[in-house]
Design goal:
The chain has four helices and five strands. With 136 residues, the chain is of the alpha+beta class.
């Protein structure tokens, strides 16, 4: 008889936990969607790269996940400099593990005139996720 009573209680507890997790993801995602600082961070990062101010660009990268030394970052940035950029559309992203932010579609132009599409993610609007900068 105890088993019959505990099953509904257990199911209710699991349901509430799932609802709580879903609510957390929606709230985090909504917060990322409304964060005006995210585009500012992306613009600041790209402006610094365009100006050749690699120290500033490096400083805008999320420090807890950089995994790359400043000298290595600057060397790579000098090899593929950015002359100009255009920020296109953006979408909110959210993960219970990684947090939330916005992902921007960006087109960068090199001094040679070559253009490349990139996706740049912010972490909560305060920094750029270096590991998530990718072509595409």
């Amino acid at each position: 008889m105890n088993r019959q009573r505990s099953a509904p209680v257990l199911l209710a507890a699991v349901g509430l936990l799932a609802l709580g997790c879903a609510t957390w993801v929606v709230v985090r995602s909504a917060g990322a969607a409304e964060n005006p600082d995210a585009e500012h961070v992306v613009r600041s990062y790209l402006d610094a790269l365009t100006a050749g101010d690699y120290a500033t660009a490096y400083g805008l990268i999320c420090t807890d996940e950089t995994g790359v030394e400043r000298a290595e970052f600057e060397r790579a940035a000098r090899q593929e400099p950015v002359r100009s950029y255009e920020i296109g559309s953006s979408v909110a992203w959210s993960s219970p593990v990684d947090g939330s932010g916005r992902e921007y579609r960006v087109t960068v132009t090199a001094p040679t005139g070559a253009r490349a599409a990139q996706r740049i993610r912010t972490q909560g609007g305060s920094c750029v996720q270096y590991g998530n900068i990718s072509a595409g």
